[in-house]
Amino acid sequence: MIYLDYNATTPLEQEVTEAIVTALTDAWGNPSSSHEAGIKAKEVIDNARQNVASMIGTIPSNIIFTSGGTEANNMILQSAIEYYKQHYNDSSTDIGDTINCLPHIISSCIEHPAINEYLKYLQHSKQAEVSYVPISSTTGRLEVTDVIKHIKSNTIMVTVMLANNETGIIQPVKEICHSVKSLVRHEGETQNILVHTDAAQAIGKISVDIRELNVDYLTVVGHKFYGPRNGAMYVKGLDSNDVPLYPMLYGGGQERSYRPGTENTGMIAGLGKACELVSLNREVYEKTMLECRNYLENKLEEYFPGRVHFNGKFEGTERLPNTCNVSILGEKYHGYKVLSRCKILQASVGAACHSQNKPSSILLAIGIDESIARNAIRISVGRSTTTADIDRIVEDIYQAIQSIDQE
Amino acid sequence: MIYLDYNATTPLEQEVTEAIVTALTDAWGNPSSSHEAGIKAKEVIDNARQNVASMIGTIPSNIIFTSGGTEANNMILQSAIEYYKQHYNDSSTDIGDTINCLPHIISSCIEHPAINEYLKYLQHSKQAEVSYVPISSTTGRLEVTDVIKHIKSNTIMVTVMLANNETGIIQPVKEICHSVKSLVRHEGETQNILVHTDAAQAIGKISVDIRELNVDYLTVVGHKFYGPRNGAMYVKGLDSNDVPLYPMLYGGGQERSYRPGTENTGMIAGLGKACELVSLNREVYEKTMLECRNYLENKLEEYFPGRVHFNGKFEGTERLPNTCNVSILGEKYHGYKVLSRCKILQASVGAACHSQNKPSSILLAIGIDESIARNAIRISVGRSTTTADIDRIVEDIYQAIQSIDQE
Hints:
homodimer, about 400 residues, alpha/beta, Aspartate Aminotransferase, domain 1, Aspartate Aminotransferase, domain 2, 2 domains, 7-stranded mixed sheet, 3-stranded antiparallel sheet, 12 helices
């Protein structure tokens, strides 16, 4: 079998597994304990925090470890709501009536469920008003001007993923942030619109640097870049309260009380190592994956001349170097059907939790025809994928298509 | 160094580490993926869920994996609040005015911060009314009659830890549950008072069986019984909605949408293995630890005749087999001071996150004099602690006391 579903999850790098085992074996003490076993564990965590911070160009005090991306994303959204409640919607403060209503969050219609489902919950529980900005069918991405158009007096946050998990399309987060932060806000309007990006799919594949993006919050998800299943969040100037962060959990005071619970030292050590590897080798990873993905797309065009459509390819729009979302054109070639006939390819029709029989809502949202979207296969290559692997899986797809033809 | 702080955290059993490494290496696929890599991961999780369930005498569908005990405890409390909101405090339902107020939760004043701090948050945010039942200074534990006295028409939950982390004192959870469930509730009162127990310190040390306890919710914390830093919760009849559970996080639908986020397969596999070991060996662990702890207490009395006070020892009250909370009597023998003079003993003055210079609030709550509480040292033995270790650390404490005397 050849696994080409690296956007769903990645194996752990050998060095990451080693870092986890070392931490579990040698640094198993409670990081809050004041004796030697505790001090050792605390050092491992400090070191990992440094590695996460360095990877994205920030300082360790801006990093909070979480159980994963879902928790990080949810907590960041909830923080914006809580901040709004305390600053703009408290009956004891008098800031004029104009924004004395629900906080408004702007997002896109192609976000991961960890954003999307939480936003639905916030809407349903009447905690927030949400605008889902449509995607341009010309560029396949969210356009800055469309985001700005949706900003209102009560807008408190803009949250946009850095790269889409199904298409690999990179969103103009830096530009969105710049435009949002440049807006002149009047009295009776929220004074600082917070900007968040979920960088789950981008890290380890393209450069992700806080100093460039300038966002207020960023989500890090270990298992998308050969790390473990925990995560972290970047919060701008956390110690000086530059931007708000409120805990969702309450307990023993770990992570400066923002995220209590005895620290998962093993996983944290693994995440730190995975970040260190990205800091050291990201350009090499990017180059290798890009070559492989381009080779794959050329091969597919060669095998199916005039019959392939690359769903993430838009003129002038950047994509992740590893992602190929492709439809073999033809009424019978539904993505799930083609994959079920493949003998060696392990890929998916979209996100891992996506239902098999419906066309992907992400693809429909970026303007792909339903008949094409239904045929989509997401092939995402990894760090060690070779052109020989590609040769084999393209042949595999070819045989799958032939077997469907012969039905 | 001799580590005798097993109530703070435990090392991982070799087999647990192996289970984690095997899962990280062989079952790293996304459990939601429909291809082989995903199916393998799902099997590992199913197997672990079976092991957690078996350990506490229930079925796998009543188990939800969480990132740890803090999350489990918080989520269970929040579920009670949400349930009350939806059933007793919704303006659209008419159940009479009597309980149209805040939900009431009963707890003890010796709970872990993961309960205690969340309760404070609920009070502070005006989501709940909380009663902290005092501890009997005769028995050192929470008494059933005292719990029952605090029940009101709007009581929705009783949450009491199964065994205290500092003293090892076992609380009468089974009896509390029985009494609470036997109450005749009148119209205008909550009809079902939910009972939760945090079994963090009890599992692996004493028998913990749902069929006996009959609680609605129970919290499992891996790292207290030689497992990893994740956790699980038992929820009675979850699939048939016997008792309510509401998610705190929203995302990709994992854990039947109660706890979304890509499953931490490695940690889950480790937790499953740790539970399996407890199912197989708990009685042996209990016996070994009990012998060691009793040997320790005899030795301490021998070394400091008439000068030791065992803070968790009350006539007729059961204690965990591994915990010895001891004060060496004398004005200068503050717990933190004694420990700082010890050369080989790694122990603590109380919970890991407890401030060193104040007497433990837990000890004060059970009626220990401030002058004695200030001197407390919590020594908690583990599965592999030997009487030879005890000999060495008692001598170590003796030397520490001598060095203080010679100041």
